Every structure is written in structure tokens, then in C-alpha cells.
Write a sequence for this structure.
């Protein structure tokens, strides 16, 4: 003899079976106590820092913080990831990790919380960019030649080349004994010192 009791809600129950014979007599079994528990609710996870779209300069130190909670238990850890690769974990709130010496590149950061039932939740992705440090431009005075001699009152044509490996040259300034003689904003860079 058997029946299947479907869609049983969470709670504690005392189950019995009652048998009846053809003379109308009945007997009830001993009680069997059972408990139906609610399904585990996964924890929450949110990466609160850095902000989405944040930019850093290499070699960067990126402070990551997260919030996590579990409505029907406890959070046991929060793990921090970059592009799906584990960076580190924290087992106590406030949940934090600092990722040091981050090279230039774009990264998708997440935090994953785990509860005491082993369920996990991964936060939304936070995208960050780490840029290479700025390299200063180069400048070379090409005219006049070193040691050149002029007769006063002289007009001296100064010329220079300049470049920037990670950007653009916006101007070249020309100096004599630390005093500004002139500025040129377009190549070929030159001024006339009269």
C-alpha cells in the first residue's frame, strides 16, 4: 500500500497509516515525524568598488569591495575574479581584496558569494581599464648646429624634431638660457630668434 503526497510545503509533519479490514475494524500505525525544508535561497553578491568603467594607470593597485548576504543562512566567503580567474577570497565582512601590480589591459571583474549550503551567486560584471603610464615626448634641436657662430645683431633660425610614442606632440617651445623664445604647434617645428 502506498501513496505519493505531492507539492508538500515546508514544515514538520506527523505521518500515520490507518488500515481497515472487511469487518470495518481499523488500526493506526505509529507516528513517523518528517520535516520538509524550504529550498535553499542562494546568497546575493554585488561588487561595490571599483565603479564600472573605472580607469587606472599601470602598474595599478585596484581595491575591490563587495557586499553579500544570505536570507536563509550565512555567507561563508566572497571570491574576487578578473576575467574569470580567481584573484583572492575574503571570509568576513566587509568583503575586500586589493589586486596589485595590474598590467595594462581591459578587465571584467566579478565577486562570487558562497553560502553555508554551498550555493553561489556571481555579481554583475564591472569593466575596468588599466592604461600604460604616459611616456614623455622626445625633442631634438636640429638647427643651429652645436658650436655655430653668428655676428650680432643676429637672426638665428631654430628648428627641432619632436615625437611622442603614445600620443601626439601638441607644441615645441624654444628657449635661450631658460628664456622662452617662441612656440610652434605644427611640424616642422621652428622659430626665428631675431
Amino acid at each position: 500500500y502506498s501513496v505519493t503526497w505531492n507539492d508538500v510545503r515546508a514544515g514538520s509533519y506527523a505521518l500515520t497509516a490507518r488500515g481497515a479490514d472487511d469487518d470495518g475494524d481499523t488500526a493506526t500505525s505509529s507516528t513517523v515525524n518528517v520535516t520538509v525544508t524550504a529550498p535553499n535561497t542562494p546568497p546575493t553578491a554585488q561588487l561595490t568598488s571599483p565603479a564600472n568603467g573605472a580607469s587606472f594607470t599601470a602598474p595599478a593597485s585596484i581595491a575591490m569591495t563587495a557586499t553579500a548576504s544570505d536570507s536563509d543562512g550565512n555567507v561563508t566567503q566572497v571570491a574576487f575574479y578578473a576575467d574569470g580567474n580567481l584573484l583572492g577570497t575574503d571570509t568576513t565582512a566587509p568583503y575586500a581584496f586589493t589586486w596589485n601590480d595590474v598590467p595594462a589591459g581591459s578587465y571584467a571583474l566579478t565577486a562570487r558569494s558562497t553560502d553555508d549550503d554551498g550555493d553561489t551567486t556571481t555579481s554583475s560584471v564591472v569593466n575596468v581599464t588599466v592604461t600604460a603610464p604616459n611616456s614623455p615626448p622626445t625633442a631634438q634641436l636640429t638647427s643651429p648646429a652645436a658650436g655655430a657662430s653668428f655676428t650680432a645683431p643676429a637672426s638665428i633660425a631654430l628648428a627641432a624634431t619632436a615625437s611622442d610614442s603614445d600620443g601626439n606632440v601638441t607644441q615645441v617651445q624654444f628657449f635661450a638660457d631658460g628664456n622662452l623664445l617662441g612656440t610652434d604647434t605644427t611640424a616642422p617645428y621652428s622659430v626665428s630668434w631675431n
About this structure: The CA atoms of residues 156 and 168 lie 27 Å apart. The chain has a mean pLDDT of 96.
